[in-house]
Amino acid sequence: MRSTEHPQAWQVVNDMVTVVYDLCRQVDVEEATKTVKSLLTNYISLALTPKPKLDADSATSYFGIFMNSSAISVLVTLYVSPYKGNKDTADSCIRHFLNCCRTSLSKIFHTQAARVALEFCKLLRRGAGTHDPLYLYCRSSLGGFLEAAEVSLASSEDQNFKGLVLVQDLFPFVRELADSLLMNLDSSIDSPSLACPLLTNIGDFTAFLVPVRTGIEQHQALRGHVPYHKLDRNGLVVEEIEYLHLLYNQLLCKIDTCLQKMEKRFVDKEMVHEENYFYPACSLYLSLLKELHKISKLYDGAPEKLRSVLMRQKTVMCLMVVKYAKRADEHQWILEHKNVTNFEARRHLAMMIFPEVKEDYEELHEMLIDRSQLLTESFEYIARADPESLRAGLFMEFKNEEATGPGVLREWFLLVCQAIFNQANALFVACPNDRTRFLPNSGMFIRNFSTILVCLSKILNLLFSPLLFATRWEYFQVEI
């Protein structure tokens, strides 16, 4: 047992390596899979044991045990072993270990967990190939860890003093995933079933691109913002930066072809039947375009190429935005290409800014309004209300009318908005330079400040809080 600050962890790893070596030599081990899994779980559990100091340095020291032992190599050796049962045992144990790292360890450990997953990938790539299921699992796990992992521009492990993930080690994965995406895109327009592999590849591609782009941006900051082909070879490998530019051009060309095929189908009226509007794989084109938009920021002339493709395929682009843009996605990048959107696409993007409607409120804020006193009584109800209650459900009813429900509530919203901006009420006046904008009527506020300011602020918060809370003003031309 070597001297270390983590003697228990070393003991657990050594025990695990011994068991796996025995399996590789065809020594009979009772409940082998269960035994190895238990030892791996113990190793993770020790990492969670409270310590006086838990930081990046201690995480590096702890996972250095796993990296510096032969644990990773013997597990991969077991996986490629020709003996019966060994492959299944290794497969189960490696998946178990990486899954425990993902679900049990805090993000402090993710840099080191990424280094472990990276080492598994390197060995499996050589021993089992890039299409092997376990390799693909390890690659996806590595992509997941990269979200919180720290990266280094060091050119080799000898210079990687902090034990970070080397950016140049990630380029082979970007190449693999880009090649897979190119093949998937070739078939996506004609194969309705291809959405799942394309989704996985785009997700992994996105995960690996984040640290790669960060590395290139840091490299440009250190060297000065110069054309990529003039960078020297002392830091990030120039060939890799050039290759990413080549991949960008290839993917952009391929998705341009896919969008052209889609447009032809629309012209030929082959894809305009309700739910068969698009094939499932087409829903992922927006995600890929977003990644190409981010890559384009790294290279001179690349944004213009992307804009040219989007303008050429404006019709299909707008249809995809309306059908597939979701609230959970990031669509701000489209704002930089406003000319490629039409009214329907912009309206859809604007609506995605608003919170999703919830109808399971425990309490309702009830209002009974006289139509003839619409604005006055609305002000009174809202002025007396607790601000938090206005974020719950609203129950609206007009006096001497039986109708209730969402339709009545929508009518009330419309009438109140019209009353607020009605020139006869003089709460707001039109901007003299832009008739689409409204400004508060300063004279009206001065004369009635004490009576309407609180009411007005509350009703505006109720009506327009989604805009004030989260909306990008590029979508709207209203000043309040």
From TrEMBL:
EC number: 2.3.2.26
Catalysed transformations (reactions): S-ubiquitinyl-[E2 ubiquitin-conjugating enzyme]-L-cysteine + [acceptor protein]-L-lysine = [E2 ubiquitin-conjugating enzyme]-L-cysteine + N(6)-ubiquitinyl-[acceptor protein]-L-lysine
UniProt name for this protein: HECT-type E3 ubiquitin transferase
Keywords noted in UniProt: Transferase, Ubl conjugation pathway
Pathway, per record: Protein modification; protein ubiquitination
Positions of transmembrane segments: none
Gene3D superfamilies, A to Z: Hect, E3 ligase catalytic domains
Top-level EC class as recorded in UniProt: transferase
Species the sequence originates in: Trifolium medium
BP GO terms, sorted: protein polyubiquitination; ubiquitin-dependent protein catabolic process
GO CC term (a single one): cytoplasm
